[in-house]
Design brief:
Blueprint (H helix, E strand, L loop, with lengths): L1 E2 L2 E2 L3 H9 L8 E5 L5 H9 L4 E6 L6 H4 L5 E4 L7 H4 L5 E6 L5 E3 L2 H9 L10 E3 H12 E12 H5 L4 H10 L1 E8 L11 E7 L8 E6 L8 E5 H4 L5 H7 L6 E2 L7 E4 L4 H7 L3 E2 L7 E6 L12 E3 L3 E4 L8 E7 L1 E4 L3 E5 L2 H12 L4 H5 L2 E2 L5 E2 L1 H6 L3 E2 L6
Parallel strand pairs: 3-4, 3-6, 4-5, 6-9, 10-12, 16-21, 17-20
Antiparallel strand pairs: 1-2, 7-8, 9-11, 10-11, 12-13, 14-25, 15-22, 18-21, 19-20, 19-22, 23-24
Helix pairs in contact: 1-2, 5-6
The protein binds S-adenosylmethionine.
């Protein structure tokens, strides 16, 4: 069911979150955005003597029949009301939440809250997701050593925008577990989500974080990654391939490559009436392209030149759309990346991009719900190139 930008949690995902909470006989749990009580119901199934404090902008009647013991419900809009002023909430054992995905503009109240839980200085944004606000309320309402279990979107767990948030969590709290939930696990959205289990305790400088995959068919289900590396992304797939020590793979960054996208949209290029490359000009596999030898009519950066490797930047399976400029120069759209790299590595990069065994590695850097895209930073850093003389 969808309500206020909400995608309700299924029984199986609720169980996974609750079972991952390392709690001993908790008395109070706060459920932020309790909805139909999916998480709280599982919580009280496991911890039979616990009491729920449920908060939602829109309380459902059936909750009264679901919750047990001395549980309490409050109708509160968390964007507008400070729960610490409205309720006597302090020192809870745990907080749980599957927050809605809504954008908020920073104001002085949000800033105060985020500063108190040591997150504000890591965010350099004009607006932010409600997920951050719900996480902030969760972290400030639990006692020392208390646990927050929260479901976050791919944007929070993997995008460049929220790298600072991830860093703040890793530096100021102990991130105990990251659980990867596959796409299409929520009936109402295709979005990929991740469960974070966070302990409110100052961590040691560099600790190991467990990443788990919620997929019965997955061969590798657990990874351990150092906390000082993890802010890059919480994505299981990415670390699975980065962690693979058997092969000596290198990244485009290791080989001194430069990556740029085209300067013009597809629409703009069509109006220019010059030859150009867009994603639709690239086949799956390799497309060899002959450019033009005439003088550039537009600024030089808009063109891909002889020896440049092209890669689709947006669209499903864009990482399989590969091009190579055999001669001359040609305009490229902003949906295509050009990779400029020393001649001696060009063939090896082209071969590595086409390797079947690399498809999964490259797909791990594609993000987005329906319209997939590859970020330049990830493409630079992902290790997928096998060098013949593996000395680089
Ligand atoms: C994704 S649903 C999760 C519901 C339930 N906890 C679950 O896991 O299925 C998010 C919930 O947050 C509530 N919500 C949305 N905006 C809110 C706000 N500003 N303040 C409090 N609750 C809000 C929605 O009504 C919804 O019930």
């Amino acid at each position: 069911m969808i309500n206020n930008g909400a995608h309700y949690t299924s029984d199986s995902i609720s169980k996974i979150l609750i079972q991952a909470l390392p709690l001993i006989e908790p008395t109070y749990v706060l459920d932020l955005g309790i909805g139909d009580g999916a998480l709280s119901k599982q919580f009280q199934n496991v911890y039979k003597t616990s009491n729920v404090i449920g908060i939602d902008i829109n309380l459902q009647n059936k909750l009264k029949n679901i919750l047990i013991n001395d549980s309490k419900l409050y109708q509160i809009d968390l964007r507008k009301e400070n729960i610490f002023q409205s309720l006597q909430i302090t020192k809870l054992d745990a907080a749980i939440s599957n927050p809605p995905y809504i954008k908020l503009k920073f104001d002085s109240n949000y800033k105060k809250l985020l500063s108190e839980i040591k997150i504000l200085n890591y965010l350099n944004l004009n607006n932010f997701n409600t997920e951050i606000l719900f996480a902030a309320y969760g972290l400030s309402s639990i006692k020392k050593n208390g646990i927050l279990g929260i479901i976050v979107s791919d944007s929070i767990s993997a995008s460049h925008t929220y790298k600072g948030f991830r860093e703040a969590i890793l530096k100021n709290y102990k991130l105990i577990k990251i659980i990867d939930i596959p796409e299409r696990s929520f009936k109402t959205t295709e979005a990929k989500t991740t469960i974070l289990i966070i302990k409110k305790i100052e961590p040691v400088k560099n600790y190991m974080v467990t990443l788990c995959k919620f997929d019965p068919k997955a061969k590798v289900k657990n990874l351990k990654i150092q906390s000082n590396l993890l802010h890059e992304t919480f994505d299981f797939k990415y670390w699975h391939f980065q962690n693979n020590q058997n092969k000596k793979l290198v990244s485009l960054n290791d080989l001194g490559a430069e990556i740029r996208r085209g300067s013009f949209s597809h629409k703009e290029l069509k109006s220019l009436k010059s030859k150009f490359v867009h994603t639709t000009s690239l086949d799956y596999g390799l497309t060899n392209i002959n450019g033009d030898r005439r003088k550039a009519e537009i600024r030089q950066e808009a063109y891909a030149n002889k020896g440049n490797i092209l890669l689709g930047r947006v669209g499903r399976n864009c990482y399989r759309k590969i091009g190579y400029i055999r001669k001359g120069k040609i305009l490229i759209s902003d949906c295509v990346y050009k990779i400029e790299i020393n001649k001696e590595y060009q063939q090896q990069v082209l071969d590595s991009l086409q390797l079947k065994s690399n498809i999964e590695i490259l797909s791990s850097i594609c993000r987005g719900v329906c319209a997939k895209s590859i970020s330049k930073q990830r493409l630079m850093k992902i290790k997928f190139i096998q060098l013949e003389n593996a000395s680089a």
